[in-house]
Structures are given as structure tokens and as C-alpha cells.
From TrEMBL:
This is ATP synthase subunit a. Pfam families: ATP-synt_A. The keyword Amino-acid biosynthesis does not apply. Keywords: ATP synthesis, CF(0), Hydrogen ion transport, Ion transport, Membrane, Mitochondrion, Transmembrane, Transmembrane helix, Transport. InterPro entries: ATP_synth_F0_asu, ATP_synth_F0_asu_AS, ATP_synth_F0_asu_bact/mt, F0_ATP_A_sf. It comes from Loxostege turbidalis. Its main location: membrane. It is found in: Membrane; Mitochondrion inner membrane. The chain crosses the membrane at residues 20-39, 71-93, 99-119, 126-145, 157-175, 187-215. Mitochondrial membrane ATP synthase (F(1)F(0) ATP synthase or Complex V) produces ATP from ADP in the presence of a proton gradient across the membrane which is generated by electron transport complexes of the respiratory chain. F-type ATPases consist of two structural domains, F(1) - containing the extramembraneous catalytic core and F(0) - containing the membrane proton channel, linked together by a central stalk and a peripheral stalk. During catalysis, ATP synthesis in the catalytic domain of F(1) is coupled via a rotary mechanism of the central stalk subunits to proton translocation. The keyword Cell inner membrane does not apply.
């Protein structure tokens, strides 16, 4: 049962032994009309409002001289949000429900932050490992705790995104599987519950995109 349940996340479409499901990660961007970015419309204004809001928030966290850095995290937000929403459509592969993708996003970012921080701000990185006011006897333990918490950051970023995307899809799959055994009255109730779950999953898709972007921004601000 569990094997069949989790098989909904398997990339099963192949052509010449190449998994085509992963192409959905990028191919959807090709269907956005070019005129969408050129002709002013309410959707473009709304999207620009979101991006400008994120830019201001990320700039506050990173500092005044970080205009270019904010676009990295805005692009991450856009990429994750696009794939989260794409997975809500029927028969479309949810790439963000796989650690392969989420780790590919979080691990290179974390490594780049660590290399930059330890090479350019070595003293600051050592200071950051011991919170201010820590008693001398606890300093070795605090260094160990801070080191472990720093090392597991890319894993927690990846698992948080993957687990949240899997949980909602599994719940919707479990509920939809009980439909054939229900009476017509319960099926109507089940449809209403599925609609509510879909709304909830849409909110989760937005929130998780924001969470991974804002946490990455915070990690970046710590090495500067």
C-alpha cells in the first residue's frame, strides 16, 4: 500500500531512457507568452508588486550594498513557487517533492556562503559560533552546537520543502482513493474537502517558496 501511495512521486515518463518528468521543471516557462513581459497588464503589475516587496525585504536583511544579491533569492522564490504550483495540476510531476531538486538548490547556496564567509570574514565566522555573554565553561559546547546546526542547514532547508509538498499530495491522494466506496452524498462532501485541501496546498506552495528564500537570505546575511 505504501509503495503504491508513494509511487505518485516517481518520475515514470521516459523517452530513450531519459526521465522526461524533470523537464517539467523548466518547460512550463516556455508557455508564458512573450507579450506578458512587454505589454502592461494587471497580472504583470501584481507580479512586479510581489517582486518589489521581496526585493525591499531581502535588501533590509542583506544591507544597503546588496542590490544585486537580492535577485538571487528572488529568482529562487520564483523558481520554487512555479514548480510548487505546477505540481498541483493533475498528471504533472512535482519536482519539489524530491530531495534531488531541493538539495540541489540548498546545498550549493550553503557551500558558497560558507566558502565566502570563512575566506573573507574568518574572524566574524569564529565570533558567530559563540553567542555574546556565553560563560567560559559552556563555550566548547556552544561551538559544537553551532557547528552542528550550521552543517545541517542545507538538509533542513531541503527536507522542509520536500516534506511539506509530499504531505499535502499524499493526503489528497488518500482521500481521492476512498471516493469509489462512498455514497453520492459523501462524494459531494469529499469534493468540497478536496477543494479546501487544494486551497490549502496553494497557500503551502506560496509559504514554502517564501520560507526557503527568506532563510537562505538570513544565512547569507550571517557571513557578511
Amino acid at each position: 500500500m505504501m509503495t503504491n501511495l508513494f509511487s505518485i512521486f516517481d518520475p515514470s515518463t521516459n523517452l530513450l531512457n531519459l526521465p522526461l518528468n524533470w523537464i517539467s521543471t523548466f518547460i512550463g516557462l516556455m508557455f508564458i507568452p512573450y507579450s506578458f513581459w512587454l505589454i502592461p497588464n494587471r497580472h504583470l503589475f501584481f507580479w512586479n508588486f510581489i517582486l518589489n516587496t521581496l526585493h525591499k525585504e531581502f535588501k533590509t536583511l542583506l544591507g544597503k550594498n546588496s542590490n544585486g544579491s537580492t535577485f538571487i533569492f528572488i529568482s529562487m522564490f520564483t523558481f520554487v513557487l512555479f514548480n510548487n504550483f505546477l505540481g498541483l495540476f493533475p498528471y504533472i510531476f512535482t519536482s519539489t517533492s524530491h530531495l534531488t531538486l531541493s538539495l540541489s538548490i540548498s546545498l550549493p547556496l550553503w557551500l558558497s556562503f560558507m566558502f565566502y564567509g570563512w575566506i573573507n570574514n574568518t574572524k566574524h565566522m569564529f565570533i558567530h559560533m559563540i553567542p555574546q555573554g556565553t560563560p567560559g565553561i559552556l563555550m566548547p559546547f556552544m561551538v559544537l552546537i553551532e557547528t552542528i546546526s550550521n552543517i545541517i542547514r542545507p538538509g533542513t532547508l531541503a527536507v522542509r520543502l520536500t516534506a511539506n509538498m509530499i504531505a499535502g499530495h499524499l493526503l489528497m491522494t488518500l482521500l481521492s482513493g476512498t471516493g469509489p466506496n462512498m455514497s453520492s452524498y459523501f462524494i459531494i462532501l469529499l469534493v468540497l474537502v478536496q477543494i479546501l485541501l487544494l486551497i490549502l496546498e496553494s497557500a503551502v506552495a506560496i509559504i514554502q517558496s517564501y520560507v526557503i528564500a527568506i532563510l537562505s537570505t538570513l544565512y547569507s546575511s550571517e557571513v557578511n
